[in-house]
Amino acid sequence: MIDWKAIKDLHTTKSLEKIVGNWYGLDVLYVDTQGRVQFVQEPGYSFKSPFLKLQMSHSFGHDWLEADVEKVFEFFNSSSEMSYEFDAFFPGTYGYSHKVVVDDEFCGVVIAYPYFKDTSTTEEVENVVKKVVECGIGQEDAKVAVSKIKKFAGRFYDEMKELVAIVADEVGTFHHEISKREARIMDLNSEIGNKYRYHNLIGKSKKMQQVYHLLSKVSNSESTIMIQGENGTGKEMVAKAIHYNSPRKDAVFMAVNCSAFNDNLLDSELFGHVKGAFTGAIKDKKGVFEVANGGTLFLDEIGDTSPSMQVKLLRILQEGTFMPVGATQPKKVNVRVVAATNKNLKEMIAKGEFREDLYYRINVINVALPPLRERQEDIPVLMDFFLQKRCEEAGLPLKTFSKKCLEKMLDHTWPGNVRELQNEVERLVVIAGEDKNITPDMLSSRILESGESHGHAPSHSGGSFLKGVNTNGSLKDALEELEILMIREGLKRCAFNKSKLAKELGISRAGLIMKVEKYGLDKRAQKRAAGE
Ligand SMILES: Nc1ncnc2c1ncn2[C@@H]1O[C@H](COP(=O)(O)OP(=O)(O)OP(=O)(O)O)[C@@H](O)[C@H]1O
Of 101, 205, 252, 315, which one has the greatest count of Cβ atoms within 10 A? Predict the structure, then answer.
C-alpha cells in the first residue's frame, strides 16, 4: 500500500503540486485503490482551487467529489488507458486523472481538478453557477468560485496533463523505492534477529543458535575443524555450511566417509595412486585431496581410521604433502580439512586407538552438534520444513500435522536425530496420501510406542522404559538421555508439580529445578517446543 503521507512530503511532489496549483489553480488529489481521496478531509488542508475549497466546505460537496472519483475508477477498472479526462459533477467542468502503476500493479490515481476547457461556453459556465446555487451555496460565493476555475487551451492544457502524469510517475517510482528498501530491511531484520537457519541448517533452539554463531566466526578462517555429533545430527551439512561461507566457496567441496573403505582402498581414495601400484591400477588416479585442492575436504568418521592412516593424515595436515600409492615423489596441496566423528576421541586416545597429535591438529576448532532430543524446540520447525519440502517436491498441496501427532513426535527421543525425523516426515507424506491432516495413527510404531513407554515411570514398567533411550554410545550420554526422558515425562504426569516429582524421583526439589533448567524442560519451553 502506498504511503501517501510520505509521498506528499516529498520535495518533488510538493514542487509539482505547487506548479499545478499556482499556475493552473488546480488541486492535485491522491486517491488510493479503495477510492479514498487523501488529505482533503483533514482540517487545515490548503486548497489551491477556490471552487474546490467552497465545494468541500459543504457536506454535499463531498458527495460530488465521491461521484467524480467513482466515475474515474469505473473507467480505469474497465480500460488499460493510463489517463482519463472526465466530465466532473457539474456539466462543463472537467478533471484529469492519471493512474499510478508499480510493477504492473494499479496502486492509485492522481487527479487534477476542476477546470473548464476552451470549448466550454459562457452559458455552460453560468449553468455551473446556477447548479451550485441550487445545491445550497450562496449566489455571490458561487459566482466568485466559478470565475476562478481556469479555462484551458492549447499548450497550457497539454502542459497540465503532462505535469499530472509526472506526479503520478513520481508517486510510482517513490513507492517502488520504498518497497525495495522495506524488503531489504525485512531481510536484514531476519538476518540479524531470527537466526532460525544458517546456510541450509534449520533450527531455532539456543543450542543451534550457538552453533550458527560459532560457524559464522570460524568459516572465514583457515583452521581445521572437528565436528562432533551423533549420527544424523547434520555434521556433513555443517561442513558444507562452513565451506560455502568461506573464501573457498567457489572451489570444490568433497566428502569422504572414512569408515566406508578398508585401509588400502581409503589410501587410494584419499591420496590417489599411480599406474601399476597394485593389481587393477591400470592408470594414474587422483585422490580426493588432489581433487579438492583449493577447496574443502570433509573427512567423515575420522575416528574409524587405522593408525597408519592417521600418520598420513597428520602429515598432510602439518605439511600439506602426501604420497599417492605407489608414487616416489610427494605431492603438495592446499586443502582445508573439516573432520567429523560420532566417537569419543578422548576415550580412544586413552585406549591408544587414536593419535593424540592428530587429535590436537584436527581439533583446532570444535563444533559440537547437539542431538535432537536436547533441542526439542527444533522438532516442530524441522517437521514443518521437511513437510513443506516434501509436499512441494511431490507437487501436493501443503499438509499439516495434527496437534496429537506433533505431541507424539515431541515425545520421541530421535536416536537417529534429524535424519530419522526427515525420513519419518517423508514417510508420513506418502502414508497420508490425499489426507491433508497428518494424524498420530499414521506414525511409525516405534514413535507411537516410544511415547507410550515414556509414560511409565521406571518402577512401574520394569525394563521396557529403556525402549526410547539410545543404548549405544557412552554410558554418560545414555544416562543423561534417560534423565531427560524421566524428568520430561514425570513433569507431564505430575502436571509440572516439581515437589511431587522430586519425591517420586528421590531427589531434592532444588536438584530437580536445576536439572529442569539445564535440559530446558520447564513448562514454557515445552509449550514453545510444541508451538503453542
Ligand atoms: N539442522 C538441519 N536442518 C535441516 N536438515 C538437516 C539438519 N541436520 C540434518 N539434516 C538432514 O539430516 C540428514 C543427515 O544429515 P547429515 O548427513 O549432515 O548428518 P551427519 O551427522 O553427517 O550424519 P552421519 O553421522 O550419519 O554421517 C540429511 O538429510 C540432512 O539434510
Answer: 205
Please, which residues bridge with residue 286 across strands? 272
CB of 341 sitting under 6 A from ligand 1: no
Pairing label, strands 105-117, 27-31: antiparallel
Instruction: Give the domain extent around 57.
Output: 4-183
Q: How many A from CA of 182 to the centre of ligand 1?
A: 34
Query: Atom 18, ligand 1: which residue's CA is nearest?
Result: 234
Give the whole-angstrom CA distance, residue 517 versus residue 504. 19
Q: Quick one: pLDDT at residue 463?
A: 36
pLDDT given for residue 411 in this prediction: 87
Pocket test for ligand 1, best of 208, 236, 367, 426 (most atoms within 8 A of CB): 236
Q: Is 419 in the pocket of ligand 1 (CB under 6 A)?
A: yes
Q: Whose CA is nearest to atom 12 of ligand 1?
A: 419
> Could you give the number of structural domains in the chain?
3
Q: How many residues does the chain have?
A: 532
Residue 121 and residue 50 in one domain: yes
> What integer is the mean pLDDT of 454-461?
38
Q: How far is CA 310 from the centre of its chain?
A: 42
Mutation choice for ligand 1 from 201, 258, 375, 418, CB with most ligand atoms inside 8 A: 418
Q: Are both 174 and 277 inside the same structural domain?
A: no
Q: pLDDT tens, 281-301?
A: 889 999 999 999 999 999 999
Distance 198 CA to ligand 1 centre (A): 13
Quick one: CA torsion of 4, 8, 12, 15, rounded to 10 degrees? 150
DSSP letter for each residue of 234-293:
SHHHHHHHHHHTSTTTTS-EEEEEGGGS-HHHHHHHHHEE-TTSSTT--S-EE-HHHHTT
pLDDT digits 0-9 by tens, 494-511: 878 888 888 888 787 777
Residue 308, classified by CB atoms within 10 Å of its CB into exposed (0-12), middle (13-18) or buried (19+), is exposed
- What CATH number has the domain bearing residue 127? 3.30.450
DSSP state of 305: -
CA separation for the pair 352, 333 (Å, rounded)? 29
